[in-house]
Amino acid sequence: MTPMLLEARALAVEIAAKTVCTGLALRVARGERWAVLGVNGVGKTTLLRTLAGLRQPHAGEVVLDGHPLAALTGRERARRRGMLLQSEHDEFEATVIEAVLAGRHPHVAPWAWESMVDVAAARRALEQVALAGFDGRRLGSLSGGERRRVSIAALLAQDPALMLLDEPTSHLDLHHQVAILDVLAGSATPEGKALVMSLHDVNLAARYCTHALLLFGGGRTEQGPVREVLAPDTLSRLYAHPVAQIDGPHGPVFAPG
After folding, report:
1. How far apart are CA 167 and CA 79, in angstroms?
2. CA pair distance 167, 173, nearest whole angstrom
3. Has domain 6-256 been given CATH number 2.40.160.20?
4. Taking Cα atoms as reference points, which of 192, 196, 205, 201 lies closest to residue 172?
5. Which of 130, 188, 208, 243 is 20 to 30 Å apart from 181, CA to CA?
6. pTM here?
């Protein structure tokens, strides 16, 4: 039996005396696209960082492709999962192609240089995010949206089976939000990848995700297929504000009531 790509087993996550989740059982298979939803400060980023192995859980464990995450080396983790952080801090004035090639490091032997295969993967990723021809541009010369797309290109070049994305659409205009999510969603197939991403826009979650994990605060969570979980009464409780549902061209659309 093929193992789940990602499992959280009895996971408890806390930060600053705040409980993000407790006893969380989460199972993510290839081809699934999960949205993590909740109000600001509820712990979406903290949960994603814990699932990525960037911070320790308070209790429970994370299992990646059948292996306890804690037992994997850093290189083994990076080959299986990648994470898009909410914001980037450029310590060095790198070029765009250098930044994207950083995503290939898990696949490059220690002390070796990137091969033409790696360069081709980086350029292919730049094409996917509509930044072809930006190779030599300095990161500091880019707009916020362009810089965000460079980070997504680096993740695509890394090519992990599991992508954890913290607000992937931040800094992007409407056109690029849809274009980037089209690319990411297209990679999530039963033979390919799985996505787990925090989102502020519940309508993007409804359009692009197969499942949703809702963080209510105080450790309370709900999860399931989006068609079951994303409902006006549930979302009204989640965001502490009335939410109405409207029929749209791609399915239900949710708006403030």
Report:
1. 22
2. 13
3. no
4. 201
5. 243
6. 0.95
